[in-house]
Structure prediction request, 233 residues.
Amino acid sequence: MTEIVCEISGNHGGSLDNALRLILDANEAGADAVKFQCFDPERLAARRAERADVLALAGGVPLVRLYRRTHTPRWWFPKMISHAETYGLKWFSSVFDPDDVAFLETLGCPRYKISAFEMLDWDIIKAVRETGKPIVMSVRPMPGVTILQATDYNGNLVPLGLSAHGDIDPEPHCPMVEYHLKLDDVETPDSAFSLTAKELRGMVAMTMHRNRRAEAYAAFGIKNESETKRQQE
Prediction:
């Protein structure tokens, strides 16, 4: 089954009430988990100050100003966690510095996300590894780095998860898909690649239908729909 994760990110627009609304929307849309972002704006801006890809995405906006707009204060976390748990939603968080990991360990964070921008930052990876908690990691090609998907030693490909920016449909058997969730009445720097609650409900329904169909095929020893069509020819 595909785990559907709602990324709250900075779509709260600086309001705790909005963050709690997003968690409620995630639950009502049928998500399995919510993910937060834990970072200090000044520290994150300094870490990424020399990253040409990050600066290009910022479009000339100083990074520290951008991250202050999308920052989730630490004192919100206990309230957001409690709200998520009220609905039976799982939660976890992205981290961008070892200090973020240390803070979240005090709250019992069950797993950690490392973003594609930090996929090679050893100090963050090391801090997360030392917790012994599960890791969710986004990766993407960048200059000097080519990403290869390795098969197992029987030549089989293991499905990968998807960190979606927009209404992108995951592949069958995808273990996790992460969507950014936004509020209709709150505009943020993340709005352009985020889904409304209505759009998310549609993606959840489509993914659940695909999962049920894949399970039905598997019950008959059929790998996918293409194989079914070949057998019918």
Notes: The longest strand covers residues 33-38. DSSP finds nine helices and seven strands in the chain. The domain at 3-149+160-207 is CATH 3.20.20.70 (TIM Barrel).
